[in-house]
Amino acid sequence: MKIMYFFIATFLLAGCSSNKKPIENESAKPDFTLAFGSCNRIDLPNLLWDDILNTKPDVWVWGGDNIYADTDDMEALRAMYNKQKEQTEYKKLVETTDILGTWDDHDYGLNDGGVEFEAKDASQQEFLNFMNVPEDSPLRNRQGVYNSKKFSVGKHSITIIILDTRYFRTQLTPDNETSKRIKPNEYGEGTILGDVQWTWLENELNTSKSDFNIIVSSVQYLSNEHGFEGWGNFPHEVDKLATIIESSNANGVIVLSGDRHISEFSKTNLKRMNYPLIDFTSSGLTHAYNGFSGEPNKYRVGEVIFTESFGILEFNFSAKKVDFKIVGDNGIVLEKLEQVYE
């Protein structure tokens, strides 16, 4: 059965719908707007940057696969990053908006690559150049591209926590028994973040006093049945993140992810949280899984969007509310989810 691009559902604290309205027709101006996306090729039309500009985001977050290089040739990698930086509408965005982000395998340099990629340190420097990180920044001496930034809005604030799911990620387990590409490791085997990054992340959540804490992961956290890359390949680390989030008492934790060439909302309830944990996947910016015919995801809320799109989070501090939107070309809202954080 062909998956449709729209649905209407109502929840106690959250509503999800698709209205296909241009985003500029929304009446109430949010207190803070975060836009994000992933999977962007420089050899394909970059059609969405004008629409992203029109949302007037306070921050743009790259979710990974920001270019498609798959190379250990740093000159070639640099040339591709520079070409993206010269894309007219993206260049305007950089001039007017804070830019944050992480990488994924195709801009990291090795398809499905992890800790074994020998050029990762050189690649990291090229990534930081692309992100316009100053030469004297401490990030230049850090192993991995994880980092965080706090945005203050009056008496309120949002902390964006950027994870690196490549630099430390250990071996995946191929699935030679089914049609899936990868199967989960044995419980306790391997890591996606590595010890140093885990310690850093736990401290970030434990010490944050922000109204909202946005965790950016290049790969999906909740969806785990598709047989591609994701946190589900390290089930013990899925549980570890859930435990850290619960025990930290950090406010308004949200996960953003990419990688899959589809966009969707996933949601789960953690025992010690009075709001659901949402994993908002936005992918891709220049190409999508247009032949998508369905896949299981027990956490999914609504339908899968399999056309080019980007994600928007609109924050209302007084209402403790976030509007999540999947937006396509011409600013059309393809699907949206509303969540109140009590």
TrEMBL record:
Domain PhoD-like phosphatase metallophosphatase residue range list: 48-268
InterPro entries in the record: Metallo-depent_PP-like, PhoD-like_MPP, PhoD-like_sf
Residues that span the membrane, as ranges: none
Domain of life of the organism encoding this protein: Bacteria
Gene3D superfamilies from the UniProt entry: PhoD-like phosphatase (3.60.21.70)
Pfam family, one: PhoD
Protein name: Alkaline phosphatase D
Taxonomic source organism: Maribacter stanieri
